[in-house]
Amino acid sequence: MASQRRPGTRQRGRQHTPLLGRLDSLPAALAAARQLQQNGQTASAVNLLAAHLHERTHNMMADAPMLADACILYATLTTGDDQLRAAAYAYRASRNLHPGLPTHPRRLEAAATYGSVLQQHGRHDEAITVRRGLLAAYRDLDRTADILTATTDLAASLHTAGHCAEASRAIACAWHIWSDHTPHTDLDTGTAVLAAHMRILRSCRRHLDLIALLHRTRDTRTWNDLAAARTAATDTADTAYIDRHSSSCTYSPQQATGTPPAVPAPHASPQPAAPPPAALRPPFVHVVAVRRVRQSRARVRHPLASYQPSDIAGAFSIVVTAPEAQPLLDPGHIPEAEPTAAQHQLTARVASYLAHQRARRATLRTAAAVLPIAVVLLTLLLL
Q: Who has the most CB within 10 Å: 72, 125, 269, 339?
């Protein structure tokens, strides 16, 4: 009867044998790969693990602790389809090996690796689900540094997927925990949270919130570390991320309380933005106009006289931090005879900010004047 078996049946049975047989030498290979990783020899570690894991059908492998650990390391070091398959196996196997134990170290490490790999491969919704579970596990353990890291990663996935409001709340919560409730000994974590917070605010063009954050963090150790770590490569990466996010951004400043209307990005319209009304133009525009026209030599009132010092400082912060200002701040930039679209955009943004600040103060002054009168009238009516 054995001779009557179909050839396909024997072939399918042989597919499992090499996978199980190679596990015998996997512990030694994993130990050697970890040592190579510590020595900075990442390529050698990948090659060593690839001999066991490259192009394997991981969904056919049995759940084994050693294999899960090897896949975690392999997914951390490699790229491409192998990375995604290994991370998915480690995540699934760790959950099956430790059911009901979401805080088990192997499950935590596998979830962190899988969430990162999903994010790299553009599978943001799946990354959000995995990272939510990881954050919940760290909260159960009450490990502040890991909570901050997991929250920062979750905010990145939410923001990339277009959930801007939720991402902003998450990263703001992480920054609040770091700045107000955490001993500032782990500066690496604080710097990562601050960098992510600034990137999200810049990408969503929340310049007022960005100015407030810069004002609060200026001259702190976290800010100094972040400034020292800035390079041309990181600036280029941030700019590219901001450009990509503009197509999926869902933040609406008009719906937020106490924020001025948003000014569209320069690339949102092919035509240059119209200049703002003269009454709303910022001080430096008035100065340029006066110099160009020169119709009268009469003494002109200083254009900054009607603004509060804090508003002036905020306006200049916008000029320095706004994305459209970067070409204008380039040392090699040659001023043009006519204002460009970026200049119009920057002018409109500063004008909107100054007008909003002035209107807010006027509202507060009106409320302060009317409230006592209302109290007196109410008292007379009750007598």
A: 72
336: region left, alpha or beta (phi > 0 left; psi from -120 to 50 alpha): beta
Torsion (CA) 263, 269, 271, 272 in degrees, nearest 10: 30
Which sign, positive or negative, has the C-alpha torsion 242, 243, 249, 252? positive
Domain boundaries defined on the chain: 23-121, 273-288+307-324+341-383
Please give the helix or strand (H or E) that residue 11 lies within, else none.
Answer: helix 7-14
Contact 107, 95 (CB under 8 A): yes
Phi-psi region of 55 (alpha: psi -120 to 50; beta: other; left: phi over 0): left
Amino acid letter for position 106 = R
**Cα three-residue angle 160-196-331, rounded to 5 degrees:** 100
The reported pLDDT for the residue numbered 126 is 96
Among 60, 57, 62, 129, CA closest to 93:
62
* Residue 140 to residue 72: CA distance in whole angstroms: 23
Amino acid symbol at 209: D
Whether the Cβ atoms of residue 117 and residue 84 lie closer than 8 Å to each other: yes
For residue 49, the SS3 value is helix
Q: Does the reported pTM lie above 0.85? A: no
Question: What is the pLDDT at residue 311?
Answer: 66
CA-CA-CA-CA dihedral for 358, 364, 367, 368, to nearest 10 = -120
Residue ranges for the chain with pLDDT beneath 50: 1-21, 254-303, 331, 337
DSSP letter for 41, please.
-
**What's the rounded Cα separation, in Å, for the pair 93 and 106?**
10
**Closest by alpha carbon to 123, among 165, 160, 68, 96?**
160
pLDDT reported for residue 259: 42
Q: Rounded to an integer, what distance in angstroms lies between the CA atom of residue 146 and that of residue 15?
A: 41
- In whole angstroms, what is the distance from residue 228 CA to residue 231 CA? 8
| CA–CA distance, 101 with 108 (Å, rounded to integer) | 10
Pair of tokens at residue 295: 């119709």
One-letter identity of residue 350: V
